[in-house]
Structure to design on (577 residues):
């Protein structure tokens, strides 16, 4: 499909030379094949798409909703995608399409749970529930610091630092341009470093982590 | 989404490659963050998905063939009846292709018809979506993207062709998130055409036709005839009727810088008038503002180009293959090479799409 190829060309153009470019183009082509098979009723193909995209969906949701609800919402996203799969014409844009479904599911979650407050970058509710849900002292605090960053940065950083995806993978999975992902990673990381060191200074040297 | 605050160095640093793709010298702090935050990583196995209903296909079994004459007669009769009723009711000019529209708040309208709070309406080609001061709406097209429409906005659907989805924003504000192929989602405004290059952005048009685009993810191309601006995440660009797009800038630039740039773009008309504002822009420019200075190279007269060249060279030295003389004569390949040193996307990404913009550089109604 020519248009899907265009997306692949664009991604490749921003990824630099060599193997990374080829891997991304190859994976986009595989995705298109699986999407087409799933549209024909092949559940195994949809399972492949789940394996490939679950981390991305999980990361997008984790950037917006409490960690305790993320796993359930990941399944909601894939069920919603499955039901609407026949409407997807750009099979090469599956990742970007899925990412938007995930963001919409997160918005719906907030509308359902806290109707009196619009969805904003204020993640204080998420912080409280996240902190209470984990026995690890460091993880929730650092995740809270990530959550205090602007939306674009926190989503990209969570995909990189939590889900373990590389920059090229994030671009290929979410449909963002590699340049945007790179910029978001670097700027987000700088802000996160500043935030963590400010928090460490504020909390005093006895709580500072090595 | 505010992706533009507190901007810092974006090019790969010592740990840059490691942050980008895990290669290069590992950064201990990033490794520690990966170890700590990795505990939140997705681990759930795939659920049992329900059966997928494939797209409906015509299958003529033998037993169905026996019913074919009666079925055909019934279908033809139904078509005739429906066609008669449809023509008699003189419907709105809705085509099959369009955007799904839902009301978010208040009573947005498509033409004269108010969109119900429940359910989804359709914005067809040639139709107009309008929100009053208390209404909001949301549009979605599965193969293109999502648009949130603010109050006091008027939006028209011009085209849903496979290679180009085109809208016209007459006034108001829209927030777009586009997941369709870059270069195919186009919005006309009274003073410029915006072309999506894989991004999310906010576009505003006031009652005079002046516009503003703010990019939160990816890139937007802003273009009118031969005048063009490329706006990355965190940057903004104004546009004015009969002038076209101004010079893009990062929104965390100083107020003095932005005011001087606005005067340079839209108020000053001679090099003499522009000189003091250009001096402010050049004097206040930070490394990030190389975005603005690179665009200014082609917007100043020859006498002032040397000033822009010198300041941009201080901020981001040009590559060895780029000469001063080449930049002075606005040699496109040299300008592109210098751009690639600024640390944004490779310029070939949008040069590729620019070639397909020949037919989109002018708002559709002006053609």
């Amino acid at each position: 499909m020519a248009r899907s190829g265009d997306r692949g060309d664009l991604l490749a153009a921003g990824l630099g030379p060599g193997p990374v470019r080829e891997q991304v183009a190859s994976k986009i082509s595989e995705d298109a094949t699986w999407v087409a098979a799933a549209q024909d009723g092949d559940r195994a193909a949809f399972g492949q798409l789940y394996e490939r995209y679950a981390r991305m969906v999980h990361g997008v949701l984790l950037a917006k909703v409490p960690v305790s609800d993320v796993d359930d919402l990941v399944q909601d996203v894939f069920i919603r995608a499955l039901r609407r799969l026949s409407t997807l014409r750009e099979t090469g844009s599956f990742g970007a399409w899925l990412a938007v479904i995930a963001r919409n599911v997160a918005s719906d979650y907030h509308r359902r749970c806290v109707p009196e407050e619009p969805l904003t970058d204020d993640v204080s509710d998420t912080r409280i529930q996240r902190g209470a849900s984990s026995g690890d002292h460091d993880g929730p605090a650092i995740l809270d610091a990530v959550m205090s960053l602007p939306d674009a940065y926190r989503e990209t950083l969570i995909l990189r630092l939590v889900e373990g995806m590389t920059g090229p993978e994030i671009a290929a999975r979410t449909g963002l341009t590699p340049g945007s992902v790179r910029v978001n990673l670097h700027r987000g990381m700088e802000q996160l470093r500043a935030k963590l060191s400010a928090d460490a200074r504020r909390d005093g040297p006895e709580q500072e982590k090595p | 989404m505010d992706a533009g605050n507190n901007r810092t160095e974006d090019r790969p640093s010592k740990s840059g490659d490691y942050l980008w793709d895990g290669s290069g010298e590992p950064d201990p702090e990033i490794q520690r963050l990966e170890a700590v935050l990795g505990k939140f990583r997705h681990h759930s196995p795939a659920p049992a998905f329900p059966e997928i209903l494939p797209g409906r296909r015509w299958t003529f079994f033998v037993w169905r063939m026996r019913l074919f004459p009666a079925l055909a007669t019934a279908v033809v009769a139904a078509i005739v009846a429906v066609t008669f009723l449809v023509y008699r009711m003189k419907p709105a000019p809705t085509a099959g292709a369009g955007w799904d529209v839902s009301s978010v708040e208040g009573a947005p309208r498509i033409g004269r018809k108010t969109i119900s709070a429940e359910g989804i309406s359709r914005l067809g080609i040639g139709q107009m979506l309008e929100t009053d001061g208390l209404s909001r709406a949301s549009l979605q097209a599965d193969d293109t993207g999502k648009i949130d429409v603010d109050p006091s906005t008027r939006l028209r659907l011009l085209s849903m062709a496979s290679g180009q989805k085109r809208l016209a924003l007459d006034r108001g504000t829209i927030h777009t998130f586009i997941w369709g192929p870059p270069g195919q989602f186009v919005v006309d405004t009274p003073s410029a055409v915006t072309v999506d290059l894989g991004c999310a952005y906010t576009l505003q048009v006031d009652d005079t036709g002046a516009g503003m685009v703010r990019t939160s993810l990816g890139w937007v191309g802003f273009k009118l005839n031969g005048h063009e601006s490329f706006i990355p995440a965190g940057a903004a660009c104004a546009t004015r009727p009969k002038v076209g797009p101004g010079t893009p800038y990062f929104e965390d630039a100083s107020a003095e810088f932005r005011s001087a740039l606005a005067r340079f773009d839209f108020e000053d008309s001679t090099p003499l008038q522009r000189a003091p504002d250009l001096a402010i822009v050049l004097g206040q420019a930070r490394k990030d503002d190389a975005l603005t200075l690179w665009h200014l190279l082609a917007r100043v007269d020859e006498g002032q180009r040397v000033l822009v060249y010198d300041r941009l060279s201080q901020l981001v030295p040009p590559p060895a293959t780029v000469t001063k003389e080449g930049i002075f004569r606005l040699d496109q390949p040299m300008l592109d090479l210098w751009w690639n040193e600024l640390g944004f996307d490779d310029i070939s990404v949008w040069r590729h799409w620019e070639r397909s913009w020949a037919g989109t550089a002018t708002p559709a109604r002006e053609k």
